[in-house]
């Protein structure tokens, strides 16, 4: 790519399969609560770009996909997790070599999922807007 462009990518693996159960016991070792979770390992894939417009302005965009560790048959009212898709954008303005300001926005869209717990049926969908701004100063 041209010198003013950068491409960023990542693949993250999380070994969620270690979380198989949620269990509470008392001091005698008796089980007070037990829930089979059966989480599976999951991945997060992300791709982004940075454009260095000039000495002052830098722009960023990105896209990501989060794979849910919760198997469809294990979704519950307490953990109604779903796959998520992310879109992000941001910018940096550098006042000088020591001071800059960053601003960013992300939209997360969780897949709509339906699940049953006991005699009840549920539907869950997660959506969120995340905003951020910070001032940077090097000394």
UniProtKB/TrEMBL annotation:
Membrane topology: Multi-pass membrane protein
Organism of provenance: Enterobacter cloacae
Family matches, as Gene3D superfamilies: Outer membrane protein transport protein (OMPP1/FadL/TodX)
Pfam family, one: Toluene_X
Protein name: Long-chain fatty acid transport protein
InterPro entries for the chain: OMPP1/FadL/TodX (IPR005017)
Family the UniProt entry places it in: Belongs to the OmpP1/FadL family.
Keywords attached to this entry: Cell outer membrane, Lipid transport, Membrane, Signal, Transmembrane, Transmembrane beta strand, Transport
Signal as UniProt keyword: yes
One Gene Ontology term of the molecular function aspect: long-chain fatty acid transporting porin activity
A single cellular component GO annotation: cell outer membrane
Subcellular location: Cell outer membrane
Superkingdom as given in the UniProt entry: Bacteria
Keyword Membrane recorded: yes
Signal peptide span: none
